[in-house]
Structure formats: C-alpha cells, structure tokens
Amino acid sequence: MKIGEKVCISVQALYNTYGENLSCCGIDNNSREGNYCDLYYGFGEIVCMDGEECIIDDIDNKNETVTLINECGEETTTFWLSFEEYGTAVFNR
C-alpha cells in the first residue's frame, strides 16, 4: 500500500464481512440489480460503487486509516477506510 497506488474496491466484500457496520460510510445493498452494493455517506452521496478503481491519497498510521479518491463517478469523491476494512475491500483486476 502506497500513496498514489490505484486499487479496486469490492463493496460487496465489505458488506459480506462487516454488514452495515463500517467506520466511515454506509453500504446500500438494496439495488435493483440484485447482489450489488454501493458505498455512501450518511446523507446519500455515493462515494464508491462495487468494483471501482480508487487512488490512495493518504495513509494515516496513527489512526490506522487509508484515504481514497474515486474519480470514476460523475463527481470526484474522497472517503476513508480503516486498515482492516481496506484489507478486506481491495482486489486486483
């Protein structure tokens, strides 16, 4: 894990492991497509859709969090995951 690295995020893996109990965001698994999840902030802003590529923006060793930038949507979003959540979510395409 390093700043500037591109990683793919599996929101489905986060949901399968943590349910709706994430540190920073919520997970919506009620999509019409069936087995598909989106990561969102509490006020409804989608920050990452399942399988999207994000860029590591910051690694905070003190708080054990990774800040990610998602440029795949209509607007660029920034969100963070705990180290543990990050380890669960990241996969290579």
Keyword list:
alpha+beta; three-stranded antiparallel beta sheet; 93 residues; 39% strand; single chain
Judged by helices, strands and strand pairing, the structural class is alpha+beta
Strand order of the largest sheet: 7-6-5-1-8
Which regions are unreliable across 5 or more consecutive residues at pLDDT < 50? none
Number of domains: 1
Radius of gyration: 12 Å
User: How much of the residues is beta strand, in percent?
Assistant: 35-45%
Number of strands: 8
What is the typical, i.e. mean, pLDDT? Answer: 88
What is the overall number of helices?
2
Main sheet makeup = 5 strands, antiparallel
Q: In angstroms, what separates the terminal alpha carbons?
A: 16 Å
Helix-strand string: EHEEEEEEHE
Question: Into which percent range does the helicity of residues fall?
Answer: 10-25%
SSE diagram, text form:
Blueprint: E1 6-9, H1 11-18, E2 26-28, E3 38-40, E4 46-49, E5 53-60, E6 65-70, E7 77-82, H2 83-89, E8 90-91
Antiparallel strand pairs: 1-5, 1-8, 2-3, 3-4, 5-6, 6-7
Task: Characterize the structure shown.
The two termini are 16 Å apart. This protein has one domain. The strands form two sheets. A five-stranded antiparallel β-sheet has the order 7-6-5-1-8, with helices on one face. A three-stranded antiparallel β-sheet has the order 2-3-4, with helices on one face. The longest helix is centred in the N-terminal third of the chain and has 8 residues, at 11-18. It has helices at residues 11-18, 83-89, and strands at residues 6-9, 26-28, 38-40, 46-49, 53-60, 65-70, 77-82, 90-91. The protein has two helices and eight strands, in the order βαββββββαβ. With 93 residues, it is α+β, with helices and mostly antiparallel strands.
